[in-house]
Amino acid sequence: MAKYNQPPAQQVESWKSFLVDYARNIATSVICGYILFIADVFGVMMRSRRILTPALYASYVAYSVFFAIWCYIILFVQRKNPNWENTHMHLIYVATGAVSVGGLMWVIALWPVFHIWTIPLGLVGLFLFLSLLALLPASKKKAD
């Protein structure tokens, strides 16, 4: 309700900044998706025999652990405990470790195909994930 108590000029500015951020995230998603499409990263992951399959599967498992923890935090922990960042630090540590191991294993798995370009393509994939994540509606804490 706090945003409706603002003067009209501030409401217009907040909507402008929201739309600019939203458009920037959409543009980043489209550009990153196009780069990954042109490089045929997903096709290589599905069809190439030169990739290290056990490392790729290990990265899938690590990313799945990260995604499961993220969903658990968003759906359950954050709603029940407003101070979850301080009380559930072990979840943050495990999620950070899982995504780090997943990224490392992904680079190891695709290195035989893309060589030095594996690292920039991994960063493009990270930016794609973060920009898509920024498009989701967030539950922000109300300022008291």
Automatic annotation (TrEMBL):
Keyword Cytoplasm present in the record's keywords: the answer is: no
Q: Does the keyword Membrane apply?
A: yes
Which positions, given as ranges, span the membrane? 26-45, 57-77, 89-108, 114-136
Q: Which InterPro entries match?
A: TMEM128 (IPR033579)
Top-rank taxon: Eukaryota
Which controlled-vocabulary keywords does the entry list?
Answer: Membrane, Transmembrane, Transmembrane helix
User: Per its UniProt record, what Pfam families does this chain match?
Assistant: TMEM128 (PF20479)
According to UniProt, the name of this protein is: GPI-anchored surface protein, putative
